[in-house]
Design a protein that fits this description.
The chain has about 550 residues and is mainly alpha-helical. The chain folds into two domains: about 5-410, no CATH class; about 425-540. Helix content is about 55%, strand content about 5%.
C-alpha cells in the first residue's frame, strides 16, 4: 500500500470516528436511546416501518402491502417511505436490541455512512486528506440533512447517492483493473440502495448521473466511450437489483392522492442566506427566519455565508469531477426553489424550471416537497470549501482555523429534545391489545395512530402513510359517523344508525379518541360505550346490529376497564 493510500485510509477512519462522535453529541446519545426515538411524527412512521419489516421477516404479511393500515382493504406500500436500506438492517437489529434503539442506531449510522461516502468522493475529486475530511463534515452536517434526523430516516440516505456518484467518477478515471471492479461495486450498491431508500434521493442520483455523463470528457483520462459504456452497464445492474422497489413504486404511486403543495413546500430564495430555525444563530435573525415560511424539518436550506464566499474564491477548481458535482448541486438547488420564486413568505409571479418539469412528469406532484432536493447543493459547497481550506492552510493557518470555526458556528444545530423521544405505555391500549382481532378506528391525526397501533396490535381503519390511497380516502370521507368523529363532518342525521353502519359495513369494533370532553361528547352522540381511559386516550365500543356494544375490555395489571 502506497503512502498516499495509507494516508487516505487513516483519513477515512478519522472521518468515521469524528462524524460518529459529533452525531452522537448532536443527537444526545445516552440512556434514552433504549426506550425512546429521536424526533416524533414521521419518526413514529419509521418506527412502524421497522416493525412492519420485522413482521415480514417472521413470515407475516407482504413487504410492499399491509392489511394493518386502511383496513379492511389494506394499502400498498410501494409509494411509502419504507427506506429498506435502513429499515431492513434495523429490523434485523431489533431482534437483539429492540425497535427504538435499532431505529436510533440507524439514524446514527446514516451520519457515519454519509461522512465516509463524502470523504471518498472528495478524495476521488483530488482533495487531500484534510480537505476531504472538512468537505465530508460540511456535507454530512449541513442544515437540511441534519434536519432529517428529526423524523425522515429515508432522507438521511444521501450517503448512498454519494457512493454511487463517487463510483461513477472513479470509473471514468481509474485504469487499474482492481480499482475498476471496486468502483463498479460502489456504483451498483449505491444505485440499488438509493432506489430502495427514497424517491427524492433517486431523483438526485439521476441529476448527478446526468451531470457526470455530460462532463465525462473532462473526467475520463482515455477510452471515454468504453468507460461510459461500462458505467452505464453497471448502473443498469444496480437498477435491476432494485426492480421490486421500482415496480411497487410505480404500481402504488398512481393510486395515491397528491402530496405537498410545491409552491410552499419549497425553499424561499432568502432561506439560502438566512439561518433556518434549526440553527443556533437563528436567534440573531429570528424575524427574518420566521418570514421564510418553513418548519423545522423541511425549511432549513442555509448555505452559510462563510462557505459561500470561500467556495466562490475557488472557482478555478471547478473542472473535471468537481465541475460535474457543481452542475448537479446547482441543478438540485434550482429545483428546490419550486415552481415559483419565493422571497420570504411572498410568492412572485416568476416561473422556475420545476414548473416545466412537473408538466413533463406530473408524477412529481405525488410528492411535491421540493425542499428535499437542496441536500445535493451542499456537495459542491463542501468540496470547494475543502479546497479553500487546504489553500488557506498553506498561507495562514490561523486564518484557516478561524474561518472553519465561523462555518462551524453557522451550521451549529439545535439539539433535539430528549423529552420528545419517550414512548410511554398507554394502559387503555394495553387493555385493548388483550382482545381478539378486530378493526380499530383511531381518530387522531398524523402518525399517532401508528405509534398507538404498536401497542394495541389491531388493524386500523385509516393510517399515516407517505402517499395516501386516494380511493380509500374518499370512501372514509363518505362515512357520516367517521367524518363526524374525525372532526370533518356534521352530526349524522341518525347517529345510532350511522355508528352501526360503520361497524357492519367496515367491521370497525372499537374507536380510539382523545380523552378530552369534546370527544367524549361526540362519542355520546353516536351512542358509543366507553371501555377504557388513560391520561392520553380513550377506547370506545361501537354498537352492533343487535343494539349491544361490540366488545369489552379485561383488566390489565390491576387497571380495571370503565
Amino acid at each position: 500500500m502506497t503512502v498516499v493510500r495509507k494516508q487516505r485510509s487513516y483519513g477515512a477512519l478519522f472521518t468515521i470516528a469524528v462524524s460518529g462522535v459529533l452525531a452522537g453529541i448532536a443527537l444526545r446519545i445516552g440512556p434514552a436511546w433504549g426506550h425512546g426515538i429521536i424526533g416524533d411524527g414521521d419518526a413514529w412512521q419509521n418506527l412502524w416501518n421497522i416493525e412492519h419489516v420485522r413482521r415480514w421477516l417472521l413470515g407475516s404479511g407482504e413487504l410492499y402491502a399491509t392489511k394493518m393500515l386502511w383496513a379492511p382493504e389494506g394499502v400498498g406500500l410501494g409509494a411509502h417511505t419504507l427506506a429498506l436500506s435502513f429499515s431492513l438492517p434495523a429490523a434485523l437489529a431489533s431482534f437483539l436490541v429492540g425497535s427504538p434503539l435499532a431505529y436510533n442506531l440507524a439514524v446514527l449510522a446514516s451520519f457515519v455512512l454519509c461522512a465516509w461516502a463524502s470523504y471518498r468522493l472528495a478524495s476521488t475529486l483530488g482533495l487531500g486528506v484534510a480537505g476531504a475530511v472538512i468537505a465530508a463534515l460540511v456535507i454530512t452536517f449541513s442544515p437540511p440533512r441534519f434536519a432529517r434526523s428529526f423524523g425522515h430516516l429515508n432522507l438521511l440516505g444521501l450517503g448512498w447517492v454519494l457512493i454511487a456518484l463517487e463510483g461513477m467518477i472513479a470509473s471514468l478515471k481509474v485504469s487499474d483493473r482492481g480499482q475498476k471492479w471496486r468502483s463498479d461495486a460502489r456504483i451498483a450498491v449505491g444505485v440499488c440502495a438509493t432506489v430502495y431508500t427514497d424517491y427524492y434521493l433517486t431523483i438526485l442520483l439521476g441529476i448527478g448521473a446526468v451531470a457526470i455523463l455530460a462532463t465525462s470528457g473532462w473526467i475520463a483520462a482515455d477510452h471515454r466511450g468504453r468507460r461510459l459504456a461500462r458505467l452505464v452497464g453497471v448502473a443498469t445492474v444496480g437498477f435491476c437489483l432494485a426492480l421490486p422497489q421500482l415496480f411497487a413504486t410505480l404500481r402504488d404511486t398512481g393510486k395515491a392522492a397528491g402530496g405537498h403543495d410545491s409552491k410552499w413546500c419549497s425553499c424561499a430564495v432568502t432561506s439560502l442566506v438566512v439561518p433556518g430555525r434549526l440553527q443556533v444563530v437563528s436567534a440573531l435573525t429570528q424575524p427574518l427566519t420566521e418570514r421564510n415560511h418553513q418548519n423545522k424539518a423541511e425549511g432549513p436550506a442555509y448555505l452559510g455565508i462563510s462557505l459561500l464566499l470561500c467556495s466562490v474564491m475557488q472557482w478555478r477548481a471547478v473542472r473535471g469531477g468537481i465541475l460535474a458535482v457543481t452542475i448537479a448541486g446547482f441543478a438540485a438547488l434550482i429545483l428546490s426553489l419550486g415552481p415559483q420564486l419565493r422571497v420570504f413568505d411572498r410568492l412572485l409571479e416568476i416561473p422556475l424550471p420545476y414548473a416545466g418539469l412537473r408538466m413533463v412528469a406530473p408524477i412529481l406532484d405525488k410528492g411535491g416537497c421540493v425542499t428535499r432536493f437542496v441536500q445535493l447543493a451542499y456537495v459542491p459547497l463542501g468540496v470547494l470549501f475543502g479546497v479553500w481550506a487546504e489553500w488557506a492552510w498553506r498561507r495562514s493557518r490561523l486564518g484557516a482555523i478561524a474561518v472553519c470555526g465561523i462555518a462551524f458556528i453557522e451550521f451549529l444545530p439545535l439539539r433535539p429534545s430528549v423529552e420528545g423521544w419517550q414512548l410511554q405505555t398507554d394502559p387503555a391500549l394495553v387493555q385493548l391489545a388483550q382482545l381478539n382481532d378486530g378493526l380499530v378506528a383511531d381518530v387522531e391525526g398524523g402518525a399517532w395512530p401508528l405509534i398507538r397501533q404498536l401497542q394495541h396490535r389491531h388493524p386500523i381503519f385509516t393510517g399515516y402513510v407517505s402517499r395516501l390511497p386516494e380511493a380509500s380516502l374518499r370512501s372514509r370521507q363518505a362515512e357520516p359517523a367517521w367524518a363526524y368523529l374525525s372532526g370533518d363532518g356534521p352530526v349524522p342525521l341518525d347517529p345510532m344508525r350511522s355508528a352501526r353502519e360503520l361497524a357492519e359495513h367496515w367491521g370497525v369494533r372499537w374507536v380510539i379518541g382523545s380523552n378530552n370532553p369534546g370527544f367524549s361528547a361526540k362519542a355520546a352522540v353516536l351512542h358509543l360505550q366507553e371501555l377504557a381511559r388513560s391520561d392520553r386516550s380513550a377506547v370506545y365500543a361501537l354498537p352492533n346490529d343487535g343494539g349491544t356494544q361490540s366488545g369489552s375490555l379485561p383488566a390489565v395489571d390491576g387497571i380495571a376497564p370503565r
